[in-house]
Design goal:
alpha/beta, five-stranded parallel sheet, 14 helices, elongated
């Protein structure tokens, strides 16, 4: 990685021995919470570290930035990408009760605003497609696969053919090659998406496979390949993105599919429950 594209924390570690004591004090503040750079002015940042603005200016030049604003732009890009390192706040003396209340309010806000943004016609269309599909594939990478697994665990109770991809130690081509217009793929793509997601969706687009894309508000490039797009509010009050709206929307989606399938869904549920009992699988 070149000096111009290296991250703030990477540049600090590379240049640490060449920094003055005052610059190292500023570096310690930034390493504790790099996201401060995106939120504060140079003066505010210098004050928080107990150094002069001139020291802050020299510091960023020593790190190879053209100026403070260049470093700030990079930090904002990292925040927008969803990097937990840049989303965490500076150490706070706020009482736990206050942090809990702020967290609750943000979670409720995410849930309410997500549900208000849902379009009934689009939701009904994708629900009908899933309910009548030959096969449903749910696909996601990294933390997106956690959400994909939630969908899979619900749909497998009501639909006769549901698959989760990618599978450990397996490639995608063999699975995607079996899909066509009579199937539906549910793709989950939260920010910090892997390039493999868009590549897979582009391939599915070529195969004329209908896709539902569940994502954060920005959605990103993969959205252009999907027939339906559900955007969820994911901004968190602390270090990690919120998943409460995602969980709610996935629950709603799968419940509506079961409702749409009617007797077929009930018959499968009954068969599954009967097998649970005969196999003595559940308490």
């Amino acid at each position: 990685m070149s000096a111009k594209t290296a991250s703030l924390e990477g540049r600090i570690r590379q240049q640490w021995d060449q920094l003055s004591l005052h610059e190292q004090r500023l570096a310690d503040v930034l390493l504790a919470a790099p996201g401060q750079l995106a939120m504060n002015t140079a003066t505010e940042l210098a004050q928080s570290a107990g150094v002069s603005k001139a020291t802050a200016t020299r510091f960023f030049r020593h790190l190879g930035y053209e100026n403070y604003d260049a470093a700030r732009r990079q930090a904002r890009e990292m925040q927008n990408s969803g990097s937990p390192l840049y989303l965490q706040s500076a150490p706070s003396s706020s009482p736990l009760a206050s942090l809990m209340q702020s967290h609750l309010e943000k979670e409720v806000s995410n849930l309410v605003n997500t549900y208000r943004s849902l379009e009934s016609a689009q939701l009904e269309s994708c629900v009908d497609a899933i309910a009548t599909s030959r096969r449903v594939v749910v696909m996601g990478w990294r933390h997106s696969q956690t959400i994909a697994l939630l969908i899979y665990r619900d749909l497998v109770h009501i639909h006769s053919d549901v698959r989760l991809l990618p599978r450990a130690g397996d490639s995608l081509a063999e699975h995607l090659a079996t899909l066509g217009p009579q199937d539906v793929v549910i793709c989950v793509g939260l920010r910090r998406r892997m390039p493999a997601l868009e590549a897979a969706m582009a391939a599915l687009d070529e195969l004329n496979v209908p896709m539902l894309y569940i994502a954060d508000v920005l959605a990103g490039k993969p959205a252009k390949h999907a027939r339906w797009v559900l955007r969820c509010q994911t901004d968190g009050s602390l270090i990690f993105d919120s998943t409460v709206a995602l969980s709610g929307v996935c629950n709603l989606l799968c419940s509506l599919v079961a409702r749409s399938m009617g007797k077929a869904s009930n018959d499968r549920l009954a068969t599954v429950e009967s097998l649970h009992q005969s196999l003595d699988e559940l308490e």
